[in-house]
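ok posting inputs for the iron/sulfur cluster job
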Amino acid sequence: MNSEKLQVDLQKMFDTRVSFRKLERKLYGHDIAAIPGLVKPFIGNTVPDAVVQPQTEAELTELVKWAGKNKVALTPRGGASSGYGGVIPVKRGIVVDFYRMRAIKKIDATQNTVTVEAGIVWEELDRALMKQGLTLRLYPSSYPSATVGGWLAQGGAGIGSFEVGWFRDNVLSARVVMPDGSVREFNGDDLDLISSAEGITGLISEVTLRVQPLEEMDVVAIGCPDIYDLQRMAENIIEKKLPVWSLIFINPRMAELKNKAPLLEHFEHPAEERVLLPASYIMTLAFRKKDSKAVMDRLDEVMKPCQAELLSQRIAEHEWENRFKIMLVKRLGPSLVPAEVVVPLARLGDVMTEIENKIEQPVVKEGIVVRAGVSGEPEVVVLGFIPSDQRRLSYNFIFGLALTIMKVAEKYGGRPYSTGLYFAGKAKKIIGGDILLRLKDFKSRIDPKGILNPGKVIKGGAVSGLVSIAGAVEPLVRLLGNRVVTRVGERPTKPVRGIPADIAWYAYGCSQCGYCVNECDQFYGRGWESQSPRGKWYWLREYMEGREDWDQFMVDTILVCTTCELCNLRCSASLPIEPSWMKLRGQLINDEKKMTFPPFEMMAASLTKEGDIWAAYRKNRTDWFPRELWEKHGPSHKAKVAYFAGCTASHVETDIPMAAVRLLDAAGVDFTYAGSQENCCGTPMLVAGKWDTFIETMKKNIAAIKEVGADTVVTSCPACDMMWRQIYPRWAERLGIDYGITGKHYSEVIAEQIKSGKFKFPDTGQKVRVTLHDSCHIGRVSSVYDAPRDLVRSIPGAELVEMEHNREWAHCCGSVLTLIKEPPVAAEIGKARLDEAIDTGAEKVLALCPCCQFQFRVTAEKKGLSIETVDLARFAAETLGYELPDSNPEVQKQWAVFEAMIALMTPEGFAALMSTMWPELVDAMPFGMGKMMRAIGKIPGALNLMKPLFPVLFPRLLPMMMPKVMPVMLERVGERIPMPDYMREQMPELMPRVMDNLMPHMIGDVVPLVTDPMIKYLREN
Ligand SMILES: Cc1cc2nc3c(=O)[nH]c(=O)nc-3n(C[C@H](O)[C@H](O)[C@H](O)COP(=O)(O)OP(=O)(O)OC[C@H]3O[C@@H](n4cnc5c(N)ncnc54)[C@H](O)[C@@H]3O)c2cc1C
Ligand code: SF4
Ligand code: SF4
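and the output
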C-alpha cells in the first residue's frame, strides 16, 4: 500500500502512539535471537512500515478492519522475549505492540481467577495479585518482561508447571480480535486455536487465568552426580507424590559458567557475594511452607537411591532468587546459540547423554519438569545454550548444532519447543496433528488474505525450508559446528568504531531479554523501545556493524538517561548499563565535541562565571544562611565537618539548607560552611558530558573544603552527596589530587545523633501520614535507605507509609536531564511516581533532594496533582519550631525561566528569535553582503536561486554577525524569557559563550527554518 496513505491513516487512528521513525521500526523488527549471517538472507527485510500501540480492544478492531481492507500484514508483539521469530514482521506491514494494553480488569479472590489485558507483564500482575493475597500459579522465567498474551500465543511451561502443567491449561478464556474485526471469546478446546498460534488466528486482547492464594514458599537445592540420577530423583518425587510446586534444574556446565559469570558491579567493584555452585546437576525445588514437612520428611528417602545430596540453603536461595537470570552466562559468549526441546522425563538421561556425546562444544542446560505433560506423562523442557560469538563466521556453524539437539530429542520421543518462524515445518510434532489440522482449517476460513502474522506456525517461509534442509544434513552441519574452537569468558579487546572495548562487548552480551525495559523511566515516560537500555544496546550493535551512524537523536538518547541506575539491578546479565552510558557521555561530548543539551551550555557559562547553574551571583550564595548561626558555623569557624548546600538549595529552594543547618545545629553537630567559596557540585556538568568544566569545579570545591579544615562533607542534596562520596574520590585519584574527604547525607548524621541519645524531636501533638521518595543518587548510588526512615520515625506523630517501589527498587522522579530535554516526558515520569505516593494515602511526599522536590512540584502543578512535596529537612526542622520560607513560588518562577530557555534553545526557538531581528541580522552581514542581499531581493526569483548556498554561507557568516546583533538579540531574549534582574544583568557575558558553543552544532537545523522567512523579508524590505 502507498506509504503516504498508510501514514495518514495510522496517524489518524493512533496519533502519538504510532511510530514511522526508521530507528524505532528497526527495533521492533526483531526478537531476542541473533540470526546468523548466512540465515539472514532467507528471512529478508524485517523492518516494518510502522509500529502502533493500541490501548483498547476497540482500537484493535479498527486496526484489523483497516488492515484487511488494505491488505497490510499485522504482527503482534508482547514483550518480544521469545526467540522463535514469532514477533518478526517477515512481510513487514505493521507491528502491533501491546505495551499500552496492560490493565487488570478483574481479580476474583473467591474463584482465584484474574482477567487482564494481554499486554500486562507477569511481574506487574503478580505484584497486583499479592496485594489481594493471591499469586500466580505459574509463570515463565521471563517473568520480568514477558506478557500474559505473549505466553498464551507462544505457548509454554515455566516455574510452577511441575504442579499445574502448561500455561494453556491454566487459562479459562481469552477474548480475541478476529481478522474480520469481530471479537470472539475462546474457552475449552477452542483455546487450541489461539494457544501456540502466535497470533495467526487473532489478536488476543484479554485473558482470564487461574491464580492461587499467596503462600510462603520454601526452597531446597539438591546436587546429583549425573543426569540419570537427576531423572530418577524427579521420577521418585512424582511417584511418591511429594507436594512440590516447582522443579527446575541446571547441568554441571551451567553451574561452572555461573561460577565464572561476572558479578553485579557498583562503581567497578563487585556488589554481590559470589555463591559457588558445585559441578553437579543442581535441582531446585520450591514448595509451600505448609507442605515443608511433607516434602522434607521424605526427601532423604527420595534422594538416597540417586546418590543425591542436599546443598546448602545459601545455594538454594541463591538459585531461587536468580531463577529469572538464566541468560547471565551470555556475557561469557558474548552470544549464545539456543536450542529448546521437550522430552519425556523417562528419556531425559538418554537425551542429555547423547547431546553431550554428539556435541563437542560446551552446552549449558537448564530444565523445567512438568509432572503431567501434554500426554499426561511427565515431560521436561530442556533449554540448551552454546556460548559463541555472533560476530564471527563460526557462529553460523555453532548455530547448526541446535539441530543436533532437536534431532536427539526427537529420537527419544521429544519435540522442538515451539514453531514460530523457524520450525513451522515441525508444527505437527510440536502442536499435535489433530490440532494442526483444526488450526489450518480455521486459519484458512477466518483469514483468507493472510493478514495476521503471516509466515508463522503453519506456513513457514524460506527460512523454515532452510531449517528442514539443514536438518536433513545434520551430521555434516554437526561436523562443522564441532570443529569450531569455542572460547568462554569476557574478553573485550579493542574499541569498535570508537565504542570503547568493554561497552562493545556488553552490547553483544545483552540478551535482549527486556527485563530493563518497563522499569526504565526513559522508556515508560515515552513508551518507545529506542529509549530503553535494550534498544540502546541493539542500536550500538547496528552502529558497530556500520548500519547506523550517530545523529543528534541518538546522542540525546544516551544523554537523557536520568542516571537512576535501576537498570543495573534489573539486568539479567548484570551489565553495568548506566556506567556505560556515562562513559559514552564523556566520549561523545567532551572528546568528540558533539552537542550536549543546549540548556547545559547556559549552566556551564553561569557555573564558570559565578559557581552556580542558576545564573545567580556568587556574592548572594550565602544569603540563605541564618545570620545568628554565622559566627558559630560560618566559614571562619574551623571544623572537621562542613555543610555543603549545593547551588539549587542555595539559590532556589533556600528553605532546605536553612532547615538542614538548623537540624545539625540543634542536634549538636560541630560544623562549618565554605560560604561563597562553594560551587555547584558539578553533577550537571558530569551528566552533560562537559567533563573539563566538571573537573575545574571539582577542584575548586575540594580546595574550598580543605580551606575550612574539614574532612567530612555533609550535604542535603543527593547529587552533591554522590559527588563527595563516590565521584570526587575516583576522579581525584585519577587526576592525582589528594582527597581524604568523606561524604555524608545530613539524615545519616541526625539519625546517628538520635541513636546515640544526643538528640530527639519534641512532640508537637501533630499527626501526619507521609511517604518517602528514595532519591536515586543517595539510594541506589550510596545505599542510604535507613537513615531518612529512622529520622521520620523518630518524629512523634509522623506515620511513614511506603510506596510500592521503594528503597533499591524506587522509581526515579524524572529530573534533571529529562526535565531539561523534554519537559512533557519529565511530567509523565513525575506523575507516575506521584501517583504511587497518592496511592499510599499519604498527605505529603518527603523528598531528600532539592531537584526531586523541584521536579515533583513542577509536575504536580502541570498535572493537577494534589499531594504536597516537602523536603525531609524542612519537615523535620519545622517540628523544632523553625519558621522557614515557602520556596514553591521561587521554584515555579525559576521553572518558568527554564522552560522558556529550553524552548528558545532549539532550532525552532532560534529560528523564531531570528525572525524578530531580520533588519539587524541583514545589516550585520560582513563584506557589504547585507546591502547586496537586499538588492538581489528586488530581482524576482534571484534569492530562490541562491537558496542552495545558504547552508554553506550561514555557518560562515554567523560568527561574524553575532557580536553586532548581540545587543538586539539580548533584548529579544529578555522579552521571551521572564528573567530575574540578576540573570538579565549577566546575559551580555553569558549569552555569547552559549551561542559560540551551540551555533556550530545547531546552525544546520536552523538554516532550513529561516531561509524562507529571510527571503520574504528581503523581498519586502
Ligand atoms: C530469560 C528468558 C526466560 C524465558 N523463560 C521461558 C519459560 O520459562 N517458559 C517459556 O515458555 N518461555 C520462556 N521464554 C520465552 C518467552 O519469554 C516466552 O515465550 C514469553 O511468554 C513470550 O512472551 P512475550 O510477551 O515476550 O511475547 P512475544 O515474544 O512478544 O511474542 C511471542 C509470540 O506471541 C505473539 N503475540 C504476542 N502478543 C500477542 C497477542 N496479544 N495476541 C496474539 N499474539 C501475540 C507474537 O507475535 C509472537 O509470535 C524465556 C525467554 C527469556 C528471554
Ligand atoms: S539509569 Fe535509569 S534512566 Fe538510565 S537507562 Fe538505566 S533505568 Fe533508564
Ligand atoms: S540490558 Fe540486560 S536486562 Fe536489558 S535487555 Fe539487555 S540483558 Fe536484558
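notes: The longest helix spans residues 981-1020. The mean pLDDT is 95.
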